[in-house]
Protein 1
Amino acid sequence: DTTNKVMTRNRRIGCSMTGIAQFITSRGVGGLKEWCNRGYDKIQKLDEKLSEDFGVPRSIKTTSIKPSGTVSLLAGATPGMHYPESRYYFRRVRLPSDSDLVEPLRKCGYQVEDAHGQPGTLVVSIPVDAGEGIRTSKEVSMWEQLSLAALLQENWADNQVSCTVTFDPETEGPQLEHALNYYQYRLKGISFLPRVSAGAYKQMPYEGISEEEYRKAMEKVSTLDLKLKDNRSEELLPPDLFCDSSKC
């Protein structure tokens, strides 16, 4: 009951943006800042109106930048605020080995393999073209990534900006302490990942590839058929209104 009272009192929504690197490529940082400010103001007005219509308190938080890996794939967008590993790259998605999606993905021609060190899990590699003219993560310094995260935190997100900063261990690694010292006052949280040629670990979510590798992978891909068996029960269960356990 205590948890539900807090949830009812402190309502939150999380309107997020994705494809930010592509937006900057076409409209610049100034354009992004303008859209953030105008969008944030619009969301506040909508939240006020809808809260009044439903007779509930206004949301105490309304905007965020989430990782947005899966949703971005559907839209063909770069994930959240992150720049791509390269213009062409593999985006890897993990699925349970008994997932209904596995067989359609195999038939479609996507590479499906066992997940390293995770029995019962498969990894699907999806070739992606991020678009002409976009900069890659290797071309964006650690400091520029932190500055972009801070810009989004200050002009858009009242929830935390999800950001994993990639950095060169040799040239930027010694600067981590200084970076955290400065940005602790401008960010709610941040993650760092060393950029190494072989990848930080096997089957990373993003792996840069050449244009030739991309085209070869795409030649094997056909139209995806997602006519899955519907194993759902005919009985419709009532929706969860509150969290009464570890799940809602």
Protein 2
Amino acid sequence: VLYFIRVSGRDLDEDYGVVDFRISPYNDICSRAISLELVTSGSSAVAVGRITGTSEGALEYGGCDAPPQTRGTGGVWYKVKGTGGPMYASTCNTAGRLPTYVSISEINFDHYGSVIVDNIDTDPNFPVIITSAAATTTTTNVDEPYPRMRAVDEDAFSCNVLQCVDTEREDGSSTITACGSHHQVLWNSTASVTYYMMVQSLGGEFDLEVGSMA
């Protein structure tokens, strides 16, 4: 992206100053998460998606169980549809030594429903329908013969209602593993549910790989 900066004043001999601004990655907000498509190669039953990115200049986040070296660092967002089985997201193929970390989140539809109904529409005659692969919530008013309906996009309010996915096994161990200064996380996905992946780093480039597991 090319940015133009205009500096003006009445007297160029006396008017001067310093311009300080941040040029952030487009996807440092979850509502602008970049979609990844999983594809199979040859006869393999494993579907994989790969992308290279950077978090330089990105907004800072806490992360899901992030280690101290990446907690509070810049993060950028990606999203992928669940396959209905085990999935993984990894930055282990990153060549750089700067630490990276991946957090996996999904929409909390219980909170999502209360946000829509309680905070956005206070008119009881205005039913709201929320649809997704995970849940369907409908409010209706029987006193109105032809109730008005509004379909709500599942991504519209996702930034405020994301929750970290469960990364703990039954034995209490974690599905998050380190590979040098980088990380991989495993989780059990639900088919067609959108999962949001936030990659944090200290500003260097990273290689993100997401896939299903045979």
Protein 3
Amino acid sequence: GRLAAAGLDSSVRLWQSSGTDHRRWETTGVLSGHAGALSALAWSPSGRSLLTGSDDRTARIWQASRGDPLRWDVVAVLRGHEDGVRAVAWAPDSKQVLTGSADANAAIWRPLYQTAGWSLVEKLSKHTGPVQAVSWASNGVRIVTAGDDGLFIWQAIQVEGGDQSWSAVFSVGREFGGMLAASWSPDGASVATAGVDAIVRVWGCSAEDEVSWETLASLEGHHGAIGSLAWSPDGCRLLSGGIDLTARIWDVQC
């Protein structure tokens, strides 16, 4: 197994488990280059790349060096946000990334052959406050962005030339408080959100039009803001972590 962690010291640390014994971990590298605290990181679905977001207003993509697999190099620096990058996510095909920023924008990036590097291809600009969480559904055609002002669910639209654009099809305002975490279920059919009101909510599409969403479950038990969410691979359980110093596992109907 492999683990990455980041924080206020502007660096990422990598750990590797010792064979099959997941109780023992060894530090294998420190990734330096950001000029501010790191707020987010995500492994690509392929496992070959690591995406990081920082208060220095950039996101970076890292890959292991071909000559030395223990050394990781920056292969792209994503510049375009006007404030710190609070959240990052990969597209399911590992060919695009999504960032959310305190500048109230989310952004989609992908490699463009004409520029020989990663470029900003679309800004998602519906939010009026910091974007704290982003997640890309496994079907590739849905995105969720969540923050201090609520959440937006975005649907991919095919445009002329075979390219892709994004349209906000559902939103929730401040009535549930600021949202700090969001995560699509493995099948992409529902999305979990959580935040300052200490409640985990699971949202699902209530009609075939894919624009009518409703709350499927409200999970209460934390005693403070919830900052992280993760689904089990089978989508039957949901893990949440809060400032009440607890992590909770919830059974979700499969």
Protein 4
Amino acid sequence: MSTCPTTTTTRLLLLLLYACVRLPSLADSLVAQPMQCAMPVARGRGWVRRTRLAAGGETSDDLLERAAALREEAAEAERQIVSQSEGQQGDAGPIVAAVAPKRWTELAGSAWKCRMTLEGFKEERKDVRAVDVVCEIALMPVEEDGRGQVRVQGDNKFITKGFVWSVGLGLDDNSEDDAVYLRLNVRGEGLEPTVPDGSLYLNAKLTRDEKDGAIVLSDGLVTFKRPQKARFLFAVYDGLLAEFKVVGNVVMEPIPVLPE
């Protein structure tokens, strides 16, 4: 009849534990317990006194033999446990397996971690410090107008709200770049003086992995829609026209979608 590996391992562990507990007590018995009685034993011409312990009726020689036997059993049990552990680990593979990153083949319903480095407007960068901002976003399904909602996952001090996302050629509608880009915008707060409070536009080039068709977002830029300055006489003010200014870069990595 075959024996369950788990039961065998348990018995071996109990035997090892028993040996570890029992051996010191046996040694203490040999040293600490007083001799209770003596029994003469004839050997050759004389008499030899063999000590017996009243508790178990065993001689000191018997106890030493039992201790040696227990020690050997404990060592054998340890060897078997190590051997079984190595065999089980070899069959099952590594105990901790690397978790493969999430991959998306469609933008609608996907989620991304956005690592932004905001450096401010080009003409002002020497006077401000760069700021690193991380947020997680989920791209909702596309609606009739060809755009989808952007949902910010979790609480974020600097990125407080998501707006819309879409796909188009170039960084914006006025771009001459023929590459396909993901465009989305979120609201940034508390990032002054690097960038004002307002919409941050994230743009990333969209390509696909040749092996599995997974979406890859690269060459990410962060822009801010800033009104163009206008002059009238000696006054300078924000005009009616605005243009997108690059204020930083962004790296976008695929992540799982979190429940709302």
